[in-house]
Amino acid sequence: MPDGEPTPSPALRASDAEREHTATLLRDHAAAGRLTPEELDERLDAAYAARTVGELDALAHDLPAPAQPSAPARRRALQRPGARERALHAIGLMVLINVACNAIWLATGADGSWWPKWVLLGTGLRLAFQLWALLGPGAVADEARLGRGGTRPRELPREQRDER
User: pLDDT tens across 90-119, in order?
Assistant: First the structure.
């Protein structure tokens, strides 16, 4: 149950959403190797046939509770402070460089092979790596490690470090 919500009484009738939640939980545990395919089938049948919340709870009584993701992991990558701006700046730089190279190619007669393809390849790879570092799963871990803002704490001058 989400934080702040009371735990329902085991005698209460189960909703379709609660049945589906239990089924998803069981599938996750089967994917983790805690349930065999046969056990999963049996428990899924029982989950969809369950009438009360207590019957649903009994299906997962011998399984560990699902781990709650940390607060930074739950936030969408582009909602982190400054992430959207950094992503847009990286994309804008790539577009600007490639438009300039294509303009030069066209201004010089556009004869021969289209050499800006190599610039496009290089800047595209650079952009992919930048966006992965900014928005990928490692970025969430870095944000959690470095603090809420995702920036490194400012280092103290040597004199102040020695005092500590």
Answer: 999 999 999 999 999 999 988 888 999 999
Between CA 54 and CA 25 the distance in angstroms is 15
- Asked if 73 and 144 touch (Cβ cutoff 8 Å), the reply is yes
Answer for the pair 146, 94: CB distance below 8 angstroms, yes or no. Answer: no
- Hey, what are 58's tokens? 């009994």
Helix, coil or strand: residue 83? helix
Whole-number Å distance between alpha carbons of 88 and 135: 12
* Residue-level length of the chain: 164
- Residues with Cβ within 8 Å of 47's Cβ and at least 6 positions away in sequence, in order, are 19, 22, 23, 26, 56, 59
pLDDT bucket at 120, cuts 50 / 70 / 90: very high
For residue 52, the cross-strand partners are 13
Measured distance CA(30)–CA(39) in Å, rounded:
9
Sign of CA dihedral 14, 17, 23, 25: negative
